[in-house]
Amino acid sequence: xxxxxxxxxxxxxxxxxxxxxxxxxxxxxxxxxxxxxxxxxxxxxxxxxxxxxxxxxxxxxxxxxxxxxxxxxxxxxxxxxxxxxxxxxxxxxxxxxxxxxxxxxxxxxxxxxxxxxxxxxxxxxxxxxxxxxxxxxxxxxxxxxxxxxxxxxxxxxxxxxxxxxxxxxxxxxxxxxxxxxxxxxxxxxxxxxxxxxxxxxxxxxxxxxxxxxxxxxxxxxxxxxxxxxxxxxxxxxxxxxxxxxxxxxxxxxxxxxxxxxxxxxxxxxxxxxxxxxxxxxxxxxxxxxxxxxxxxxxxxxxxxxxxxxxxxxxxxxxxxxxxxxxxxxxxxxxxxxxxxxxxxxxxxxxxxxxxxxxxxxxxxxxxxxxxxxxxxxxxxxxxxxxxxxxxxxxxxxxxxxxxxxxxxxxxxxxxxxxxxxxxxxxxxxxxxxxxxxxxxxxxxxxxxxxxxxxxxxxxxxxxxxxxxxxxxxxxxxxxxxxxxxxxxxxxxxxxxxxxxxxxxxxxxxxxxxxxxxxxxxxxxxxxxxxxxxxxxxxxxxxxxxxxxxxxxxxxxxxxxxxxxxxxxxxxxxxxxxxxxxxxxxxxxxxxxxxxxxxxxxxxxxxxxxxxxxxxxxxxxxxxxxxxxxxxxxxxxxxxxxxxxxxxxxxxxxxxxxxxxxxxxxxxxxxxxxxxxxxxxxxxxxxxxxxxxxxxxxxxxxxxxxxxxxxxxxxxxxxxxxxxxxxxxxxxxxxxxxxxxxxxxxxxxxxxxxxxxxxxxxxxxxxxxxxxxxxxxxxxxxxxxxxxxxxxxxxxxxxxxxxxxxxxxxxxxxxxxxxxxxxxxxxxxxxxxxxxxxxxxxxxxxxxxxxxxxxxxxxxxxxxxxxxxxxxxxxxxxxxxxxxxxxxxxxxxxxxxxxxxxxxxxxxxxxxxxxxxxxxxxxxxxxxxxxxxxxxxxxxxxxxxxxxxxxxxxxxxxxxxxxxxxxxxxxxxxxxxxxxxxxxxxxxxxxxxxxxxxxxxxxxxxxxxxxxxx
Length: 1013
Hints:
Structural class: mainly alpha
Low-confidence stretches: 1-8, 267-272, 927-934, 1005-1013
Number of strands: 10
Strand order of the largest sheet: 2-5-6-1-7
Strand content: under 5%
Oligomer: single chain
Mean pLDDT: 87
Number of helices: 50
């Protein structure tokens, strides 16, 4: 019947698309240089997207590239989680087994969520970073595979992509920075209506400069003529071309269908409706072939031969003949893997599926489900559970569908496909009331729900409750970023619990609601947490009780640190130990350690935090270890131990990256930026802050990165950039959940910017707003720099007539606040002296005796920039009131201060020291205190040859361990040399030593700066 054209229904000649192919080949060439490429190919259904990708893939393979294809899969109306990525990775593994094995080494249990062939998945940790961790490992895998060869990953039919696939694609395209990789995605542009789930992703990707979009247009009449000629293997009749062009409107697939129909003589009387056009050849098939085509249409994007045989119920010879007829008619084609069949074009499948009667559709789904239950080997193992759930659901059999859907939700959770898990749980809740009681009674939380803690009941014998599903769905919504849906679920659950009280379960839902309210910027979450705390009060110890107390302690540490927070943390640890909730205990102990440090028990608190970090690493609890890598160095920084903090933070970046803890890594980078700023390593601080912005997935760690950049820009005199980053930081932090650790540093920068711009009244307003909000115990590390900034602003405006009004009141308020803050650590004792000195300067009463103890205090600390600032003030006082006999001392102080400012790029400080020196006619050049007769400054300073080598490496930012490695000495010996150098140069830290070396011109060529290992 159609045998004359059966092999030419697709034109053997590739028509048109020259510009599009050129764009793709240019991307391939750029990728070959190590610059990853991403392209989205858009076009209406049937316009030729797949043919373009196939043509490009063939050419890429000829050029030595490895091409991995993956398509989004539909089962009925459902998609398989991560299906295109799983297919692409499977293709890569077939082509490059050794490379994939090497790239996945050590992370097989995580990556098996996408590629089951790698082994068993780990039980998994279901936390906010679980999905991000999987995404990071996937991106790293692809980058490593594409390090030595060009790889093309093509993901087709993104309009069918499940939410998890969309999230992974977005992550991949946002983060890829290296590798010879081309990522292609195709989608139907005519399907993307306003509410289509792909639309927000497309909008996000359009904003990325690294992602390019190709819009595939319909064919022109000339191109249609060439396509028809290829199909019929001859010159077409011009009138026929005109008719086909008019009716197809240049759509390549419609051109094929019309050309085949016309050539076969079955076009007469054909209506112009799309469905008729697509069904005309199906209806011309023998009845048995039409029956098989209808079976395949309802089975999914690709259906295995053995499954078709089980559902079609035809004799094997009859089935083979029916399939041959459908293949010869170019309606079905064999799957490339050779184990099944799919429609040549999804438009035909959709038309056949839409033509099924309602009862016919549900009957086919039932037969699919029964066949799969009878023989689970009919489909690939990684698809079995999801497909069975879909078949039973669309068979409209609630009793069978509910258990299958719940099994599928567990599979989705194990794969970190939380969006799909949420959808399946919502489907289960929809089915719940329609399922007979005896079926529900056989379901167990142990099998299907793990979010809500057991709290004393036996999950293997206790029946599953509707509230268990709601708890599971609430957590899935939070982990998949579907927070609005999760919040609605928690609200519904709490309404149900009003009618059937269960204080423990209600407390759990209130705790979840607190987290969601904070995530959605609806508040600080305290009202919800307080409700949960009240509900568990007086109840026997339980996991929920320990969870609530730990959450209360953590919230209090960030918002209202003090004695009550410390007591809450102690109770949380006690309850967690009672119920043997180890991860909760570690979290609570970490919070407790931080609060101990803030309360003055510095050594005990730091020891506790170190022990928690070590135990979390040993016991394999990355979320707690990641948090420890944030909080421990933060507390070290808070007591002035910046060098120790930086060492821990560098370890933390490697740990967080290894385990894909993206937000934790971002926090670590932000804290490292703070510590490097303190140590005078400002270029490293800027890079760390940029990393915090780039790596963070959530707003707040990104806000910390922006805040660090604002601080650096202010110190370097770039007020416009400082203000821009300050506003960016405020936007990231939001106004819904004010925390002292964010509020006070923001105020410090705002005061500094306003003062530098001459807006003293605005600076005062910022200060008063910050102090009105309070400086509770434990916030001294943020309050002291704010007070320094405010007192400095007042002192700098001493001669301004507009500053006179209210100055006395502002200074008095600063001093009242000083009395409230702790000075337990040397760093804060030094800050107290600094603030008091600036207040005296603002009153016009500062003398050298005012500033000398401040300089002495900072000389004992490794804070080169702060030391340079107070040395500048002492020099200023010496010049003003010290007399001629103090000029030599003032000169040396100004030289040291200017050298540090010049080295750091702190332009305002450099300009200020230069101005004072110029006015006082003091020289800023020359050695620190060398022998005038000596030609070599290093010799004049008494440096040995080995000490010169060490100073050179110190100037390049090397650590003691790195110095030891390069000079083949022990780290202890390196440490001794560094101490001797600091003493000979008369400086207090490595940053100042580098500045002196720079000023004296000891080294003309800079060594490359290396990061600590």
